[in-house]
UniProtKB/TrEMBL annotation:
Keyword ATP-binding among record annotations: yes
GO BP annotations, alphabetical order: DNA recombination; DNA repair
Assigned GO CC terms: chromosome; cytoplasm
Protein name as it appears in the record: DNA 3'-5' helicase
Reactions it catalyzes: Couples ATP hydrolysis with the unwinding of duplex DNA by translocating in the 3'-5' direction
E.C. number: 5.6.2.4
Keyword Iron belongs to the record: no
EC class (word): isomerase
GO MF annotation, one: four-way junction helicase activity
Domain DEAD/DEAH-box helicase: 22-109
Keywords: ATP-binding, DNA-binding, Helicase, Hydrolase, Isomerase, Nucleotide-binding
Amino acid sequence: MGSIAKAMKDALEATCYSELRDDQRKTIEAPLSGKDVFMSAPTRAGKSLTFELAPYTFDHLFGEACNAIVFVIVPLISLMKDQVSNLNYRGIRASYVGDDCSEEQLEDILNRINRFGWSGIRTFCH
């Protein structure tokens, strides 16, 4: 297991971001340290970056076998779709739950949760 600082640096490099603001860094560090976190910030303050980097940071810190699941709770379906598309493009398997999801999509999400277990889940509210 590596250091949190190194994992975050690797995650930034892997996603082509150069730096984090202090509130973003603290938001990502908290669940990596086993702590709960709540981030409230205005639009365009970089909340999305925190949960885009979270899966990368978990992988770099614990290895890809850690099977962490990151839940992001977002009130806008269009934002969820955009974020999921961006994460999938970057090679992170992501899904969203919305009223437009098919029963098959919901079943797939629940199967992944059951396969990996609830202990690896990290939740981010947006």
